[in-house]
Predict the 3D structure of the following.
Amino acid sequence: MGFGILRGKDSLPPVARMLHRTIHLFRKELRLHDNPVLLAALQSSEALYPVYILDRAFLTSSMHIGALRWHFLLQSLEDLHKNLCQLGSSLLVIQGEYESVLRDHIQKWNITQVTLDAEMEPFYKEMEANIQRLGAELGFEVLSLVSHSLYDTQRILDLNGGSPPLTYKRFLHILSLLGDPEVPVRNLTAEDFQRCRAPDPGLAECYRVPLPVDLKISPENHSPWKGGETEGLQRLEQHLTDQGWVASFTKPKTIPNSLLPSTTGLSPYFSMGCLSVRTFFYRLSNIYAQAKHHSLPPVSLQGQLLWREFFYTVASATPNFTQMVGNPICLQICWYKDAERLHKWKMVFEELLLDADYSINAGNWMWLSASAFFHQYTRIFCPVRFGKRTDPQGNYIRKYLPILKNFPSKYIYEPWTASEEEQKQAGCIIGQDYPFPMVNHKEASDHNLQLMKRVREEQHRTAQLTRDDADDPMEIKVKRDHSEENFSKGKVARMME
C-alpha cells in the first residue's frame, strides 16, 4: 500500500505514522459528501467502523423528537448504510447509552481512534468532552472537525473578543474579516474505503438500521419528505436547475401557507446533516457569478444560510439559549402558566417539526416574540387576517385540515362565526368536531401589547443587546444599509456590494 496518500501538509513522514483502528461516529452529519472528518479517518486508518449510536434516552432528553422526525432519521440512516455499501463498507447502528456502547466496542475492536463531527449544541459538546475523557482513560485519540456550519463558530467568537456578535450587522462585519467559508472537501470513493478494512458482513446484519416498529413507533408516515443524503441531493439539484428563481429569491416574498413550499424545503436535510451547507453555499455562489442581477443578503438564499450561521454562533456561546430563564439576551416575561395550552403548543412547534433545530428554532422564537433580535413588538400577527390576505380561498386549510374543507371561504379561517345551520351543512360542529379558539385574539393581543411595552421599559438594557441600527434587516428596503459596510474580503464581500 502506498503511504504517500496518507500525508497531510502538517503530517509526519510516512514511516513515522501509525495507522489507526478507528470508529467513525456519525452524529448529525449523515452524509458522505463534504464530510471532512470521515475523509480524515479514512486517510489515517487501517480499519474503519462507521457507527451511529442510537441512544434513545440521549435523543429524547436533548430534543423533542416526534414520530415524523424518527421516520426521517431512520430513513436517513438506511440511505447512509446503502451509500456506504456501494463503496464497500457499511453502517453499524448500535442501540444503547453512547458511553457504554463506546467503552464496550473500543475494547472489543481494539480501537485507537474515534472521529466525529464537531457540533455546537451544549449536549453534543458535553458528549464530545465525555468521549475525550474516555479516550484519556482507555488510550485512544479523538478527532473532531466542523462541517455542519459554514464557519467554525469559535473563530467568529475569537474575532469578536470572545463573545458572540449579537446583531446581524456586526455578525456580517466579523465574517468580512474571516473571508470565505472553507470549501467542501472532495467526494469519497470506493478507493478510499478499500485502503481500510471494512466491518465484517456479520456485524452489519447484527447492527442493522432498526425499523420504526422495532422502536415502538407507528409505521404510518405521511410526510412528503423522505430522509437521506440521496433524496436531499436530488432535491438540491432540482432547485438549482431554475437559476432564475435562485438568483431572484427574496425571503419576504415567500408564502408560508402555499400548498407547495415557496422556499427550497431543504431545511430537514440541513438539520440532519444529509446535505452540506457549504456545498449549497458555493453552488449558489456559482449561480450568482453567472447572473446579471441577483438578490442580496439578508433576503437572498445565501442570506438565509448566513441567518442560520448567525443563530448558530449566538447559540454556541449563550447560556440557556433555548430557554427564557437564565438566558442573558432574552427578555424575562412573566408568562401565565397553562399546562394544557403549553402542551398543545409544544406538540405543534417542536415535536411535529421535521426540521427542528436547537439554534434556529430558539432564535426564531425569540425573534417572533420580540424577546430578542427583533424589536418592533407592535407588529402582531393575526392568523385570520393573514390567511384571508395570502390564501383567500383557504386551499391550505382545506388540504391540511380536511374537517374544515366544506366551509365557505368567508368562514374557513374563523369557522366558529358560522351559524349552527351552516356548521351542520359543512359537517363540522365547532366545539365537537373542531375546537373553539384557545383565546380571543383581539383581547389577548391588546393585553399582551401593554405587558410587552412595560417589560421593554423595565428591561431596556437587555433589549438593547440585540438591537441593530436597522431593526428589521429582513426588510428588502434596508439591504443598502448593509452593503455600505466595507466588506473587503471574499464572496461574502462581493455579495454585499
